[in-house]
Amino acid sequence: MDPAVDRKVSGIVAATFTPFNPDGHINPAVIGPYVDYLTKKQGVTNVFVNGTTGESVSLSMEERKVLAEVWCREGKGKLDQLIVHVGCMSLKDTQELARHAEEIGADGIAVISPSFFKPSTADALREYLKQVAKVAPTLPFYYYHIPAMTGINVNARDVVEGIEQLIPSFRGLKFSGTDLMDFGQCVRLSQPNWSLLYGVDEQLLAGLAMGAEGAVGSTFNYMGCHTKQLITAFKAGDLSQCRSTVICCVLLLFTGFNLGVNKQLMIEVSGLSLGPPRLPLLQCPADNSQAIAKKYHSLFPDP
Ligand SMILES: CC(=O)N[C@H](C=O)[C@@H](O)[C@H](O)[C@H](O)CO
Ligand SMILES: CC(=O)C(=O)O
């Protein structure tokens, strides 16, 4: 088989949280136990480091490099695929992180659009992505579409159509949008060596129905096992089983869910010392986090 096709990402990919000390510095010492928790307790062997969940845009370049390095080192021999998100506001910084990811042996890079100065057309964004990919040509390249966070009004289908001509290392898309028409068009345009990864966890069933081959998400940090069951049920055509997992996910995330709550829930479920998020995000108040952990345990009882 073509090695690129063989290395396709499928199944679930956990978008990792960044561990901080209470004083606000990154705490890479937690990454070793974090890898063991994901692989042994959640059955998750793919990670997406320094993404939205990892608060990458609130991290310094140096912090992002250290985190990527430690994830690569600790994940060696334990993780199947480690994708590093390298997108920054500046092309130069994004290129620097892309080169760095290649040097440290990551399995792929993903890039979000810059969002302060926004690309006004799909072609502008494609040109930007091309300039990033060309400095790390050996690494599988994924476009990370997340319009609710970037505010970019460019359809993913317009970005990816024919992009393999511009970016030979292009290998797919992480689609964290709710526009399933747009996602469906990406599926239609997909090439055999692309991975189409869906990124709105509470709508994963719809993403799978439209043709997603895998998913990247924050909730797989603590719902990895349940989400794997959902994917198995989907493949077996058991839609009622799929719906019951999805409904639990929707119920859990329905009220007042944000990254601070999400991180605290991971801390409660996993016991890992991930610390508070970084400002401007706020730590979840204790009464709120206990209530959500209780809800989690009632919706997803231990087997
Ligand atoms: C905005 C955001 O962080 N999106 C994540 C991935 O892209 C998702 O995994 C969500 O955290 C998840 O779907 C919960 O809403
Ligand atoms: C969820 C996700 O993919 C991210 O944190 O970037």
UniProtKB/TrEMBL annotation:
It is an enzyme of class 4 (lyase). The active site is at Y144 (proton donor/acceptor), K174 (schiff-base intermediate with substrate). It catalyses: aceneuramate = aldehydo-N-acetyl-D-mannosamine + pyruvate. It comes from the Eukaryota. One of its GO terms (molecular function) is N-acetylneuraminate lyase activity. Pathway: Amino-sugar metabolism; N-acetylneuraminate degradation. One of its GO terms (cellular component) is cytoplasm. It is found in: Cytoplasm. Its EC number is 4.1.3.3. Pyruvate binds at T53, V216. Keywords: Carbohydrate metabolism, Cytoplasm, Lyase, Schiff base. Belongs to the DapA family. NanA subfamily. Homotetramer. This is N-acetylneuraminate lyase. The gene is NPL.
